[in-house]
Amino acid sequence: SGMALTTCVQERLGVVFVVLNDGVMNMVEAGFRRVYKRPLGAPGPAVDFVRVAESCGAVGLRVNTVADLEALSPALIGGDRPVVVDLRVDPSAAFAQSGRDQTLGTFTGRG
After folding, report:
1. How far, CA to CA in Å, does 88 sit from each of 18, 43, 48, 58?
2. Gap between the Cα atoms of 95 and 24, Å rounded
């Protein structure tokens, strides 16, 4: 969260945050479809996590390709400033499911 990031900046903690950024609320949408069997119907805003990081005093890096990822400097890890890596992923990519959706379904009577 933003509060965790600003705390890391304040305390000079060199934590690395990696955001799997698909440009939409895809994880929320997918979970909603699995639980409620219909789309959420509320597209989320596009977020530039590099700018969010920089506005909080952290280092922000964008990764669009594997080459970008490979080019990240190991010197970024272990410093005294947090780093946010805005890792762009394909919004159509499907990731393995966990038990989270089933657990959420227990709150709706659908699990």
Report:
1. 10, 17, 10, 19
2. 15
CA 37/CA 9 separation, integer angstroms = 41
Q: Average pLDDT in the 54-81 region?
A: 88
The rounded distance, in Å, linking the Cα atoms of 61 and 50 is 6
- Does 16 score more than 80 pLDDT? yes
Q: Give the distance, in angstroms, between the CA of residue 6 and the centroid of all CA atoms in the same chain.
A: 16
- Report whether pLDDT(57) > 80: yes
Rounded Cα–Cα distance for residues 25 and 3 (Å): 20
The total number of residues written for the chain in this structure: 111
